[in-house]
Amino acid sequence: MTINKIAPETKSDPGYAVLSDTFDEFMSTFTAFREENNRRLKDVETRKSADVVTTEKVDRISDALARQKRALDDLALKRARPALGREGVPTAAVLEHKDAFDTYMRSGDERVLRSLETKDMSYGSGPDGGYLVPQTVEAEIGRRLAAISPIRSIASVRQVSGPVLRKPFTVTGPVANWAAETGSRTKSDSPVLDQLQFPTAELYAMPAATPSLLEDAVVDLDQWIVSEVEAAFAEKEGAAFVNGTGSNQPKGFLQYDLEAETSRDWGEIGYVDTGVNGAFPASHPSDRLVDLIYALKAGYRQNAHWVMNRKTQAVIRKMKDADGHYLWQPPAAPGGRAMLMGFPLVEAEDMPDIAAGATPIAFGDFQRGYLVVDRAGMRVLRDPYSAKPYVLFYTTKRVGGGVQDFDAIKLMKFGTAGE
Q1: Beta bridge partners of residue 392, listed in sequence order
Q2: C-alpha span between 274 and 288 (Å, rounded)
Q3: In what order do the strands lie in the sheet with 343-347?
Q4: Segment 241-258, tens digit of pLDDT
């Protein structure tokens, strides 16, 4: 994952020291991986088969690389998280809402919060779905989801106030004609318009707190609720953006109709096949990755990303180009993304594994290709009864998503054409 803001490097910063040491360890592991994999490839060339011990060692180091990369991302994310309320001086209204929300969270006293939401014409009682969280909390959850949710981090994100976003587009493309300076202008055909719909669905989490935690005045409940729901929301929406059915959840880009790139129509995701069921071809496997890159039009390649899970990444990590250079390259700095053939790689565990007929590799400009729709307003309902002595906080947000440009995303299908 890419972290845009990392604290400045200082010798007195213990967080940076840990991050730097972890990055050094990661690079040392990659060097060891490269040496052992070179030995494995040399065995294949000379003996026509790799030594079993060497192969197992390469796989172990590859797994260690994956674990260290996740640890590196976690450390970079923690250092990049801003404290709540540090982005400027809050207004009196924001502070008033925050204090009222804190009182509701700790004691269940909803009188001030109810009056504020009534005044703002956003009234919602507990039985009707809870109360709106402060703007600072909603913004912080949005920032953290953008950092840890793999598809959200590279997609377009739009906030709406209604249940559905309708986006018009021209089916026939722009309509224009040539004409001489003084020549007559014939009437051009009217563009054919259609619209894409992106409905939002409810996503919820129910973190639990003990009465002693709520009574502790030192505990920042805003920060607590953010940290409790961020992972749950990121996991669920990340899975939906890839494989969601579109029914009461976003529609994942793998759930659209797939068609070979040479014969696809608008509304279908194009794919390039490997020519081998469930595997890369034995000779020159990187050629298929090159074909996938250039299946994407030039305008989309400038901001393109690879998307795959760690198992697929482990397979590609062992590949070299014709000049003997590894296709996969580690990030250049802590918090950066690994690179594959010059393009950043995003690890999404919800992508399928390599198998016959599967599409475990995606490549494209997801900012233009996939749209995430967030409905404004996140609610919390305090429930001290369902799980005594714990207090549950039923936290809900509404989110949708789907493909908005079918030319911007391409897939690698592990099979033959037409299957």
Answers
A1: 208, 383
A2: 6
A3: 258-260, 269-273, 409-413, 361-364, 305-308, 343-347, 339-340, 328-329
A4: 999 999 999 999 999 999
Structural contact between residues 211 and 391, judged by C-beta atoms closer than 8 angstroms:
yes
Q: In the structure encoding, which two tokens stand for residue 170, read together?
A: 């021209």
User: What are the φ and ψ backbone dihedral angles of 300, each rounded to 5 degrees?
Assistant: -90, -25
Per-residue pLDDT tens for 108-130? 888 888 887 775 544 444 445 68
Task: Look at residue 383 and tell me whether its pLDDT is greater than 80.
Answer: yes
Which position has the token pair 């595997």? 279
| DSSP character string of 141-160 | HHHHHHHH-TTTTTSEEEEE
3-state helix, strand, coil in the chain (%, to 5): 40, 20, 40
